[in-house]
Amino acid sequence: MKVLEERIRRDGIVEDTDVLKVDSFLNHQMDVELFAEMGREWARLYAGEGVNKILTIEASGIGVACVAAQAFHVPVVFAKKSRSKNIAGEVYTAPVESFTHGGVYDIMVSRRFLLPSDRVLIVDDFLANGAALQGLISLVRQAGATLIGAGIAVEKAFQPGGARIRAMGIRVESLARIKCMSPEKGVEFC
Amino acid sequence: MKVLEERIRRDGIVEDTDVLKVDSFLNHQMDVELFAEMGREWARLYAGEGVNKILTIEASGIGVACVAAQAFHVPVVFAKKSRSKNIAGEVYTAPVESFTHGGVYDIMVSRRFLLPSDRVLIVDDFLANGAALQGLISLVRQAGATLIGAGIAVEKAFQPGGARIRAMGIRVESLARIKCMSPEKGVEFC
Description:
The structure is a homodimer of 190-residue chains. By secondary structure, chain A is α/β, with parallel strands linked by helices. Chain A has helices at 2-11, 32-45, 60-72, 131-143, 161-167; strands at residues 13-14, 20-21, 29-30, 53-57, 76-82, 91-97, 104-110, 119-127, 146-156, 172-182, 186-189.
């Protein structure tokens, strides 16, 4: 998606060959008009798939998921990163490995909001190792819902997450796919 | 706001005289079309105030803030709940007392995204004791930005937060103000 690629080139900060800061428009300060364009693009890509729910994960996925959901006219459910023990039976949970902070945390979603009749699109801001996305996929599977695919804003295509998820037969639509990057040369897209 | 009050009456679950669950449409599953109506209402209430930025706090404030921001055509910045030590000088921080989980946590926002020239509207899903809102107000003050007011979805008017913040001379527009509630009698609005 040209407009997102151009925005990354203009306002993204490449701190390292694998660290891209997009906090001025994507995941700290958020450009909601850009999010609306991204939502319309996912709606075009997933037209006719009968998506009736968008699933995302706190915190930085929530903004883009909520704005995008308006293009689908569907509700959003966000998975919570749990710090406390959960009440057995009320939630679906999945472990997620954190590459940023180290260790493993659990994500959870209430069973009341993921149903076997749901046709779910997962939306998130970043795809790198795919750990969070795999956790979200697990929640959809546990609920017996239909997974339509994933809508990702920025995919680091040089990391293994995207290839791994697609190899599972899951459709992934990333609006900007980064082939490689460096502080000297900037970002190169696929 | 009638539509929000009716939704709370219909889908809110009063678990106790001070616990209201609205997780089916406000803070776990999220009705983005309701959020858009709420955004238009805040835009009407704060028309002519020159709001150029919306500030909220992770996680459940982000969805309503992002959808509402579309009615203002402004970006959103969300304060993060920090678990780690922050790099001195790069962020504004404020302590927030947690009544739900106990203890005190820090919230933080990058100095790059709150400027003295900003005219800030704070948006959040709930106002009860006002601890999170006071933390957000502190961030705005530290930045030297102008605080226009707060847009709150649900205010528990029987708890002291709203009165305390208004006594500071800050405008607070809550779209549903709960006077009292109980599992037997349901919710009564102000």
